[in-house]
Amino acid sequence: MIGTQPEGAIDGVVISAVSHEGLRVTVNGKPARLAILTDDGQVIAAGDQVAREAEAVALNCYRNFLKGQGFLRVNSEPIIGSRRDGRH
Fold first, then answer.
1. For residue 73, how many C-alpha atoms fall within 13 Å in the half-sphere facing its CB?
2. Strand (E) or helix (H) holding 45
3. 49-59 burial by CB neighbour count: b if 16+ within 10 A, else e?
4. CA dist., res. 49 & res. 69, Å (int)
5. What is the C-alpha separation between 41 and 72, in angstroms, rounded?
6. In the chain, what is the straight-line distance between the N-terminal and C-terminal CA atoms, in Å?
7. pLDDT tens for residues 19-66?
8. Taking the CB of residue 34, how many other CB atoms lie within 10 A of it?
9. Nearest 5°: phi and psi at 61?
């Protein structure tokens, strides 16, 4: 898995990332949102919160790889509406 990974497999969808902006999604050039859906189509969460969580898990997984701990699974915490401690 070292090297550039294949991308562009979803027609019209562009997922981009810049270190200081996070994940962004467009569909046919128009802004879109990432979402978590159940198998039956129920939307569990959508938008910036999902993008931040996906980015955090991917970054933590990559960091584990760099530390020689790539065999460790990285899990996010359950997504909760708004946290009382102000974290996102």
1. 3
2. strand 43-46
3. bbbbbbbeeee
4. 27
5. 30
6. 30
7. 788 889 999 999 999 999 999 999 999 999 999 999 988 888 888 888
8. 19
9. -65, -45
Q: What is the pTM of this model?
A: 0.69
Cβ distance 76 to 57 under 8 Å? yes
| Encoded amino acid at 62, one letter | Y
Per DSSP, what are the bridge partners of residue 18? 22
Question: Is the Cβ–Cβ distance between 62 and 72 less than 8 Å?
Answer: no
Q: Which of 49, 55, 60, 65 is nearest to 20 (CA)?
A: 55
Token output for 69: 């701990």
Q: How far is CA 42 from the centre of its chain?
A: 19
Q: How far apart are CA 74 and CA 31, in angstroms?
A: 28
- The answer to whether residues 34 and 25 touch, using CB atoms and an 8 Å cutoff, is yes
The encoded tokens of residue 86 equal 């102000």
